[in-house]
Design goal:
Elements lengths: L2 E5 L6 H8 L3 E5 L1 H19 L24 H12 L3 E4 L2 H16 L7 H13 L2 E2 L2 E3 L8 H11 L4 E4 L2 E4 H7 L11 H6 L3 H31 L9 H5 L4 H14 L3 H5 L10 H4 L1 H22 L8 E3 L4 E3 L7 H29 L21 H17 L21 H31 L8 H13 L9 H14 L1 H10 L4
Parallel strand pairs: 1-2
Antiparallel strand pairs: 3-5, 4-6, 6-7, 8-9
Length: 510
């Protein structure tokens, strides 16, 4: 059943964004927010009729900021702004990303500092709740003045132009609105500018990437525990006394998860006294590496929690002072830096996962059959799965180069430093997708490794994980097309069902 999220511009949660993105929640405007918006709009109307020159209300935009627009053409100014800024290219945003973007834009306007009428938010939410989703190209934003081009494509549909999707069908916006009994907006002073100034695309994509990344960090601990057990590794490196001497929160969380997952098992007892002093770093340093990535995710969460409830327009109206201030809240640098950090953290989770996978498949580094096949030579087993993981990890190395260190002047050098936050968000999502596939391959390989230790069993949580995987992907006895196995495992990972099953045995993972 869909729940209802009440937007007041200040209390939206990251989980709310995900629920709306996945179609599990609707949204509507809080009555107090509506009253604030009405009060702010009256001030904008009064200022627009006055003699003072106000950027974006009665002037041109960017380098054309000094061109005064006559009162009779203020509405045309806003429509022209939207049309001219619809210059996006590239792949369309996904439905989930589009819904997130619509929700975040509505939430910003609900704060009452933008000066738009409540009707603007009402129409935006009506489209969101009834499944009329603007077609928004993913490329064309440099991250200041916010995500101008993508947001312009969103705004275009509000005035009944451009294209939307409804249940997967591409339709003209005008017809889709008419069929739902919705009237397009007739933009008034400042409303076009208020719709396109902001960081909502980078923040929407970044929020969805972060929430999936937090789940992936738990899967990384699970994958690592499965691999360590299959490789007959030691649990000593996860002793809680170590983390007390280096108290990074992520380290402690990851080590705690590994202890819960590994416990003690017949496989562990089978190699007691084997004489191995230390495991490789990919096994022994999991709390340090996974933990560092977790701490990076925690930082990204703090930034995004602030940003989804931040006012990112320009100029910003302060109703109490009846004053519009032209500033730089639209600049995406805080989000860009955080999402670059997120991408780097995800690349590291995939990187160490691939190194564990190498140890599982390489007979020189394990006591397991070559490439985890019962009949090496006739069958190649996981040979190419490891190559695929290596390819994805290497791709991530290029993608992890920070977008936020780049800048390029635009708009006649008026906008002479930009954040590239939209690219940071899109890159983080691509790195995430690659990392999910690498971790999925490792989990499959680790379960295959554990199968070779039968009839010895692992810990109860890891046996639960293996049984859960085997319901979806059978043991690899002879060569088959692995692409389908990997796809199924990725779907299982994204569903978080395996974590839920394991947590019922181990207790909640951190």
């Amino acid at each position: 059943m869909r729940t209802n999220i009440i937007l007041d511009g200040a209390s939206l949660k990251l989980k709310d964004v995900e629920r709306v993105a996945l179609g599990r929640a609707s949204a509507r405007l809080h009555p107090k927010a509506r009253r604030r918006m009405v009060r702010s709009r009256r001030i904008i109307d009064a200022l627009a009729r006055g003699r003072e020159q106000i950027y974006g209300v009665n002037t041109g935009f960017g380098r054309l900021k000094d061109v005064r627009i006559s009162p009779a053409k203020l509405a045309d100014l806003q429509v022209n702004l939207i049309r001219s800024h619809c210059a996006g290219v590239g792949e369309w945003l996904s439905e989930e990303q589009t819904r997130s973007l619509m929700l975040l834009r509505a939430n910003v306007l609900a704060r009452g500092y933008s000066g738009v009428r409540p009707r603007v938010v009402d129409l935006l939410l009506a489209m969101l709740n009834t499944g009329i989703l603007p077609r928004i190209p993913s490329q064309g934003s440099v991250g200041a003045s916010g995500d101008l081009a993508p947001l312009a494509h969103l705004a275009l549909t509000l005035i009944g132009e451009g294209e939307v999707t409804v249940k997967g069908r591409v339709l003209p916006a005008s017809g889709a609105l008419r069929r739902r009994g919705l009237r397009p907006l007739k933009l008034q002073a400042k409303e076009g500018l208020a719709l396109i100034n902001g960081t909502q695309m980078m923040t929407a994509i970044g929020t969805l990437a972060l929430l999936r990344s937090e789940s992936l960090a738990r899967h990384a601990d699970l994958a690592g525990a499965l691999s360590l057990e299959a490789l007959k590794g030691s649990r000593r490196a996860f002793d809680p006394r170590l983390e007390k001497l280096r108290p990074h929160p992520g380290h402690a969380a990851s080590a705690s998860n590994l202890r819960r997952l590994l416990g003690h098992s017949p496989i562990e007892r089978s190699h007691a006294g084997c004489g191995r002093v230390q495991d490789s770093y990919a096994l022994r340093c999991m709390p340090q590496v996974h933990g560092a990535s977790r701490d990076a995710l925690s930082h990204a969460r703090l930034v995004l929690e602030r940003e989804i409830n931040s006012v990112t327009d320009n100029p910003i109206l302060f109703p109490e002072d009846r004053e519009l201030l032209s500033g730089g809240n639209f600049h995406g640098q805080p989000v860009a830096l955080a999402l670059d950090y997120l991408g780097i953290a995800l690349a590291e989770l995939a990187g160490i996962s691939e190194r564990r996978l190498e140890r599982l498949t390489n007979p020189d580094l394990s006591e397991l059959p070559a490439f985890l096949t019962p009949d090496p030579g006739l069958h190649s087993g996981f040979m190419m799965a490891q190559v695929t993981a290596a390819a994805l990890v290497s791709e991530n190395k290029g993608l992890a180069h920070p977008a936020s260190v780049d800048s390029i002047p635009t708009s006649g050098a008026q906008e002479d430093h930009v954040s590239m936050g939209a690219w940071a968000a899109r890159k983080a999502m691509r790195i995430l997708e690659n990392a999910e596939q690498v971790l999925a391959i490792e989990i499959l390989a680790a379960c295959q490794g554990l199968d070779f230790h039968s009839p010895l069993k692992s810990s109860a949580p890891l046996e639960t994980a293996r049984r859960f995987v085997r319901r979806t992907v059978p043991r690899l006895v002879a060569d088959r097309v692995l692409a389908e196995d990997i796809r199924r495992m990725v779907d299982l990972l994204r569903s978080r069902k395996i974590l839920d099953a394991v947590s019922q045995v181990s207790g909640p993972l951190r």
